Amino acid sequence: MPFDVLAEPVRRQILDLLRERPRMVGELTETLGLSQPGTSKHLRVLRDAGLVRVRRDAQRRWYELNPEPLRHIDEWLTPYRWMWDSRLDALERHLDTMPDEPEHSGDDQRDPHE
């Protein structure tokens, strides 16, 4: 299931990088600071979950994001969004009722140790 795959922070980082553009394993390894076998292991898990595709270009392998499984996760999460939205709306209303703090110039601030 994609949730298990996405629980790993490094895999989410890989997806974030691939969201920008396709990349080769060497670039991902360098950017992430992992070993090549470690990066390849994460890419294999992402590929097996359908989140990443591999495109061969002669001797090179380009890894690219496959967003389709993420769309399914997004659809599944849709009914739960009201919980976050209502809390953020409540926070916004609360912040709107708070008085604005007066701005102080640097001259008004005193050192508490004086």
- Rg for CA atoms: 23 Å
Major β-sheet strand ordering: 1-3-2
* Biggest β-sheet description: 3 strands, antiparallel
CATH superfamily of the largest domain: Winged helix-like DNA-binding domain superfamily/Winged helix DNA-binding domain
Summarize the helices and strands and which ones pair or pack:
Layout: H1 2-6, H2 9-20, E1 23-24, H3 25-32, H4 36-48, E2 52-57, E3 60-65, H5 68-77, H6 81-97
Helix pairs in contact: 3-4
Keywords: DNA-binding, Transcription, Transcription regulation
Protein name: Winged helix-turn-helix transcriptional regulator
Region (Disordered): 95-114
Describe what you observe in this structure:
Strands 1-3-2 form a three-stranded antiparallel sheet. The protein folds into two domains: 65 residues, Winged helix-like DNA-binding domain superfamily/Winged helix DNA-binding domain (Arc Repressor Mutant, subunit A, Orthogonal Bundle); 31 residues, no CATH class. The mean pLDDT is 84. The chain is elongated and about 60 Å long. With 114 residues, the chain is α+β, with helices and mostly antiparallel strands. 57% of the residues lie in helices and 12% in strands.
Characteristic terms for this protein:
114 residues, alpha+beta, Arc Repressor Mutant, subunit A, 2 domains, three-stranded antiparallel sheet, elongated
